[in-house]
Amino acid sequence: MLVKADAAIAYSSSVLIVTPATSHSFTPRFAGVGEKAFNLTCLPDGIMPYVHIDKSTGTLTVDSKISPEASGITGLQVPGLEEVSGGICQVASGKTALQILLLAPWTWPAIHYASTDLRVTVGESLQPVLAQGTQSPELTEEPEARVRPTRFAMACDTDKVFSFEFDELTGTGFLNGYRVLSMDLFTGALALAPDANLTKVFDGVLAAARSSASLQCEVLGYFEWQAGLAVPPISGEINISVLDDTCWKEVVAPPNSSWHRVQTPNLGNEAECRAACRASRACGIYSYRHGSCEFWSPCGLPAKGFCTGIPKAYEKIANCKESDTCLTVQDLQEPVWLYEGTFCPVGLSFQTVDQLEWAYQKSVITVEDSFYLQAPFETDFGQCPMGALWLRRANASWDFLNRTSNYLELYGERVACLSGAQGDLLQAVFDVGTQNITASEKTTDIGKGIQLALRSQSCMQPPSERKADGDEQGDEDDDKGSDSASASSDPSPILWDDPSTETPYDFSLHPCECFPMAWGAKSPVTSQSFQDVPAGSENQYVPASIPIVRGSFVCEQRYLLSPVQYDGSASMDDDACQALCRGTSSCAFYWFGHLGNVAQCRLYSDCDALVRVMGASGTLSALPPDAFLCHRADPEACWAISKRREFLHAQTDSLDSDPTGALVAPTPRPGKQPGNTKGRCLLASPPEASSWYPVGSSATHQ
């Protein structure tokens, strides 16, 4: 074996790395004996003013004032230092020369996250928060590229009842053994996704209302470029709050109200009582007094003999999240009905440049009565402080909502600034359940004694068998469409009722009934019916139009309001035709379609019968009344079970309080429904005719 070594000049490494704002000297490990003077040449030559060499010893000195914008090189194979200031230098002495790589990386001065206070609910996840370097106070301008740490880690302090551990190999953080966050060890990106089973930890913690765990975390960034090179790590702080997914609201019982004691479990303390209520589907309200745990439910009227008053108790609000839970605004002293009601989360809006907050909407029939609760912008803090909420009117012309990304922009009038007694109003409502509100910057009187609270939740459908004995087709028939609607959607032979309420058969639903959204897409509610209900409407809304029949059918010529409206351009569509009808006071029906490859829009004042037009293809629609409607559970099954029999004049017990069986509630618009002969809607398309029903009728399931 032949080994050839050039020992004339040698430094500790062929890659010499200096840290910014610090002078560095590198003395040769071997410089030979009797060699000539040392010389230094570097490319690019932009770093030459900062690098010096002792001609007698070969010692290299790098000035501490080397500029972060000095010339640099790219495409390096040094991990973490692919693009930095520096250059390739040659140290020569006589005929001996050595090439070295001299690097002067300017690192992040600290670690910064766009938001230093993060809140996440158990069972949900937040988008990763990216780590970035803060601007150095010594620099007037941030250099284009600073060197990020090669590795990240974190450590967190928390309450004594909790313990936090961070695995530096996987980047996973654990709270009492349950996963709560994950960090990308190479980029520092932080993702919060607490394990749903973390609620077991909260069961042992009795908070005033909502349990939570607070983490005060320090994120560390290490620069591990070269073995033996000690570079001080940088750090940044971030606070994380992990919230329970169940909120608790103190029950405010109306005067002379009656309550039924559902269960009295034998438990040792209030924490165990609350944990049992959380786990029990039969518990909506609990109380703990004199060492006794009690579950309660309200009694109906008249009160039964076993009903009594209720002590201090707390109501359970399950799945409690800012993105899902609705709020109620009520006035306890001088109510102004215009501003009271239920506000549900509708979208995210900017509070600051880098922070989004949920906005809440009060949905009503008219735009004039629609309002929003929105966090103030950073520029509004002089009028409405951080943590408060603006009460804003809707602006139908300018308000923008992207339902795909849940992004919202509001431009309506600011009615008042609503603030609580302390801190973040929205956070306090979710933590405690209710908050008294102080209104400022008012443009009108909004009442006195206003209170913001979490909305109470409704019950879900209990487990029940929908099909009768012997019907083994079951769910298979549900997928066969309308041909099997009659067989597969027969009402359950068992009707479920809560005797403590006035609503008949609380937990049973007929295909012709309108369904509450809490029922979900469960039988007899079809998935299509569930999807057709606009988000946030709670199945009480006004559809843009009501399709009557599709194809070549139109209304009679005598009800045509004007010559056929047509336009050969691409701008003519169903929405434009609908707008023409809305703009005509006597228009109750419109038909949009094509005849001879030409788009047509026909407006009608009435429609007693349907007429076929050869070669026409379109949709006949009716304008909805100025009233809320709701969607039936299963329109096709409703037609097969009930409406078809009514059509044939069979004697059936209709679920509709309206004996006409009409599609919608009575309307002030002139005209009647298509085929409305002697008060009956006979010729409407069965699936469409059964789709909506007026809210407030007996067909609306409470």
UniProtKB/TrEMBL annotation:
<feature type="compositionally biased region" description="Acidic residues">
    <location>
        <begin position="471"/>
        <end position="480"/>
    </location>
</feature>
<feature type="region of interest" description="Disordered">
    <location>
        <begin position="457"/>
        <end position="500"/>
    </location>
</feature>
<protein>
    <recommendedName>
        <fullName>Apple domain-containing protein</fullName>
    </recommendedName>
</protein>
<feature type="compositionally biased region" description="Low complexity">
    <location>
        <begin position="483"/>
        <end position="493"/>
    </location>
</feature>
<feature type="region of interest" description="Disordered">
    <location>
        <begin position="653"/>
        <end position="702"/>
    </location>
</feature>
